[in-house]
Give the backbone structure.
Amino acid sequence: MLNPIEGEILYIDKPLGITSFSVVKQVRGVLRHRLGRKSIHVGHAGTLDPLATGVLIVCTGRKTKHIEQLQAGVKEYVATIRLGATTPSFDLETAIDATYPWQHITREQIEAVLRDQFTGSIEQVPPAFSACKIGGKPAYKLARKGREVEIKAKTLVIDEIEVLQCGLPGEPSLTIRVVCSKGTYIRALARDIGLALDSGAHLTGLRRTQVGSTRVEQCLSLDEAITRLETADMVTAEEAERALLEAERIANRERAARLKARHHTPTT
């Protein structure tokens, strides 16, 4: 039986073309309707861009307190990159703004660059089209207005990076697998790989395949998650509140008993 007030953690395979907040909004809408409440806490751990798919962790109720812990887990991505061209957003959100030679690049060169320059602790400047705060405002809002955005480099860790597919020499396409720490922007990684190869590059596809110990194969589709919330047996808001109050009363009695025991403990 689901208890959204006490808290549930949903592992969802986010579909292409919608924001992470849209997933949260849909989950919140179903729960508000089923529980008859105007508000309920719902949040997600680790944002995925609209053009990315894969593992998105959504928490409800008191489990939203675990979001920071959940999003701190190591993440795995599979990214498709086009070499020889750049975009302002480093992905397909914006149009190509420059092209570069790519015919000189080989798979061996790519593997050497990934091994030597993108493994372990690295410095990365997040994209201007990101949620990083500049003067209290998300950088992407400024970037979309055509304003200059200066973001400081951040230290992050890439545990593993490998080539899964390479279209060279015929096509300037590349698919890589990346295991990395929280805060890694795969779009920025694509940009930096292009620069390291004396060319340009941008992201054309991204799938988050793992967060912590949860793999995408274990996740529900968004439709499956919504159907489950609409049809599963669920603790009512009143039942959840009563259970919460009872748990708090028990905890208070236990604390009082411990304090009393310490107060009456004889000293030698």
